[in-house]
């Protein structure tokens, strides 16, 4: 390990950066950074354990996290119109709140306050590990009330208290919320 120098780290960075993914594209900075962060951690542990005296500096690449474009209002409406009811409800939640796919998939009724008009996510429910209170726009409020009524009338059996569920013998529940849709709510924030 003592042979790992700053020059060797830079050489490693170049080799990792020049790889091609299975899709035939160059590896992203983010992917390289995960590997470099792992290397940095290993070197730090080696110093702490006395295996090496000091660790070379491992500099990460600057990440360009430009996401996909947001859907236009017209595209969003076309998607909703073409979707089956269970998926339409999930898409409404994504579009109206900007919640991430994992947050929507893990949404349970104890986090929904229909009377106050909020979804309250605990820190462990979010990617950023910060709790959030998300206001319920009227369309989503109506959607959640309809789902709640169906659950009460036993038309759809809730699974583990989850809000978005549906029965299917052929597949398990999968929630895929396109990034461009969940970011659509940003458009409303930037309009005058």
How would you describe what is shown here?
This protein has two domains: 1-66, no CATH class; 73-190, Intergrase catalytic core (hpI Integrase, Chain A), CATH 1.10.443.10. The N and C termini lie far apart (58 Å). A three-stranded antiparallel beta sheet has the order 1-2-3, with no helix packed on it. Helix content is 44%, strand content 5%. The protein contains eight helices and three strands. Residues 167-182 and 185-192 have low confidence and may be disordered. It has helices at 6-17, 29-48, 73-82, 85-97, 101-105, 138-152, 179-182, 185-190; strands at 112-113, 118-121, 132-135. Helix 3 (73-82) runs antiparallel to helix 4 and helix 4 (85-97) runs antiparallel to helix 6.
């Amino acid at each position: 390990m003592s042979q790992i120098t700053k020059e060797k780290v830079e050489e490693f960075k170049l080799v990792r950066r020049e790889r091609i993914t299975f899709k035939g594209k160059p590896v992203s900075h983010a992917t390289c950074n995960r590997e470099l962060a792992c290397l940095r951690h290993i070197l730090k542990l080696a110093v702490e354990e006395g295996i090496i005296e000091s660790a070379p500096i491992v500099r990460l690449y600057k990440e360009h996290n430009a996401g996909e474009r947001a859907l236009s209002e017209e595209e969003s409406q076309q998607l909703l119109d073409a979707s089956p009811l269970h998926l339409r409800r999930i898409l409404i939640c994504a579009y109206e709140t900007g919640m991430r796919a994992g947050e929507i998939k893990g949404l349970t009724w104890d986090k929904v306050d229909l009377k106050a008009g909020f979804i309250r996510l605990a820190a462990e429910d979010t990617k950023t590990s910060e709790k959030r209170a998300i206001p319920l726009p009227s369309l989503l409020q109506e959607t959640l009330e309809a789902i709640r009524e169906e659950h009460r009338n036993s038309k759809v059996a809730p699974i583990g208290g989850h809000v978005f569920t549906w029965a299917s013998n052929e597949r398990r529940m999968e929630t895929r919320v396109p990034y461009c849709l969940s970011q659509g709510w940003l458009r409303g924030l930037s309009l005058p």
